[in-house]
Amino acid sequence: MDLEKLKVQIRDVHDFPTKGIVFRDLTTLFKDGAALHEVSQALADLYRDKGVTKVVGIESRGFIGGSILAYELGCGFVPARKPGKLPAVTVKKSYAKEYGVDTIELHSDAITSDDVVVLHDDLLATGGTMMACYELVKSMNPKKIYINFIVELTDLNGRKNLPSDCEITSLLKY
User: Fold this and answer.
1) Could you tell me which residues come within 8 angstroms of residue 94 by beta carbon, excluding any fewer than 6 positions away?
2) CA 19 to CA 132: how far, in whole Å?
3) How many C-beta neighbours within 10 Å does residue 94 have?
4) Which among 61, 81, 105, 152 is annotated as catalytic?
5) What distance in Å separates the CA atoms of residue 142 and residue 76, rounded to the nearest whole number?
6) Using CA atoms, how far apart are residues 111 and 5, in angstroms rounded to an integer?
7) Is 81 a catalytic residue?
8) pLDDT of residue 2
9) CB–CB of 91/166 below 8 Å?
10) Catalytic residue among 4, 48, 98, 135
11) Tens digits of residue pLDDT in 56-105
12) Is the torsion defined by CA of 75, 80, 86, 90 positive or negative?
């Protein structure tokens, strides 16, 4: 499986969301059935033998790969959402973004101390959102946490903002 060939399926959108940014749009990869299948198998192959019990997908594009990964592994899916979107009691973590401050929430009963968790998002840029999600999940004391992305923008050095004691994987790097 040559995952690098999948890069041609990812659309570059210049000056989005602001001037000077090149947005890597994975929706063009997701709409291609063969490409989506290849990505889903590659994601699952990373974790099949690790005892994963939950996948946490970060709103919103992380819901796509995260749900597929949970399905492939036969485990549960947990959405990490923006404030006010989850209906029951939540725990939350605020974090700095390039354009201000944001908050991420999980249901307070989403993760237990028996869980082995993969945190998934579509893309690693600066790492702020993922680090907030990691800290939130870590506070729930799971057995183990893994971090995963489909795409990593290496020139932004987001990996350096993530925990060094955690296995971090990306399928594609730019």
Assistant:
1) 101, 102, 103, 132
2) 26
3) 10
4) 61
5) 14
6) 36
7) no
8) 85
9) no
10) 98
11) 999 999 999 999 999 999 999 999 999 999 999 999 999 987 677 899 99
12) positive
Q: Strand, coil or helix: what is 77?
A: strand
Q: Shortest CA distance to 121 belongs to which of 153, 96, 144?
A: 153
The per-residue DSSP string of 108-160 comes to TTS--TT-EEEEEEEEESS-HHHHHHHHHHHTT--SEEEEEEEEE-GGGTGGG
> Percent of the chain, pLDDT > 90?
93
Q: Could you tell me the end-to-end alpha-carbon distance of the chain, in angstroms, rounded to an integer?
A: 18
Q: pTM of the full predicted structure?
A: 0.95
With tokens 């970060």, the residue in question is 58
Residue 97: its pLDDT value, please?
78
Give the mean pLDDT of 100-128: 96
Cα distance between residue 131 and residue 58, in whole Å? 11
- 61 part of the active site: yes
